[in-house]
Each structure stands twice: as C-alpha cells, then as structure tokens.
Amino acid sequence: MATKIDNLAKEIMDGLKEYADLATDDVKKAVRKAGNSVRKDISESAPKDTGKYAKSWTVKKTKETSNSLEVTVHSKNRYQLAHLLEHGHAKRGGGRVSARPHIAKAEESAIEVFEKEIDKALGGR
Questions:
Q1: What domain range includes position 111?
Q2: What is the pLDDT of residue 124?
Q3: Which residues pair with 73 in a beta bridge?
Q4: Which of 62, 71, 74, 89 is deepest in the core (most CB within 10 A)?
Q5: How far is Cα 99 from Cα 16, in angstroms, rounded to an integer?
Q6: 44 with 83: CB under 8 angstroms?
Q7: Spatial distance between the Cα atoms of 72 and 27, rounded to a whole number of angstroms
Q8: Cross-referenced Pfam families, in alphabetical order (predicted)?
Q9: pLDDT tens-digit profile of 13-36?
C-alpha cells in the first residue's frame, strides 16, 4: 500500500488508534479475569464455618469508560467479617482470635494473573 507523504501522519495516527483500541479490549479482559481469579481464590481459601462467608464473595464492575475498567471484589453480605478474619481481633472476655489470612494471598495471586494476561495479550503484537 503506497501512501503519499502528505497522508503519512494521518496513516500513523490511524494505526496507533487501532492498536490502542485492541490493547484496551485486551486489558479489560485481563481485569475481568483477575477479578474473577480473586473471587475464586478467596472463596476457596476462606474459613468455612457454615460456608456462607465463602459463598458471599462477588465481583462488581465499579467503573467502565471507553478505555478503562475497574472492578471491585467484595463480600455481599458478610463484609463485616472480612477484616476480622483477615487480621484477627480481640475477644470480648480478653485474649485474641488469631488471624486467618485469605484475602492478601488471593490479591497477590491476581496480580500475577493480571500481569501474565497483559504480557500474553500485548507482548505478541
């Protein structure tokens, strides 16, 4: 394809815009996958008494624009327990309940998943 010198800047900008659109879609997919990974990991490693706490975790799309996506992983109806279980807490009669970390591990794992997905999607171009 031959391009005149007068149209070179326009052709370059069109190519860059096309790449940016494709990259945005790939990044959004990676964000969704990382969010679902966090939810799954937390549900699997959460302390299970009745199982309701582990089942309460969900992924919610918080904000989406044409070139960004933000998701939040949270416990729908047992959010009060998350901090207490993750960090431990004082007992009413004295003493402490030991921490049962399960959220921080899932977050670290999701960061790795996100980075792999980004690298896979954008590294091949």
A1: 5-123
A2: 58
A3: 59
A4: 71
A5: 49
A6: no
A7: 16
A8: HK97-gp10_like
A9: 988 998 888 888 899 999 999 999
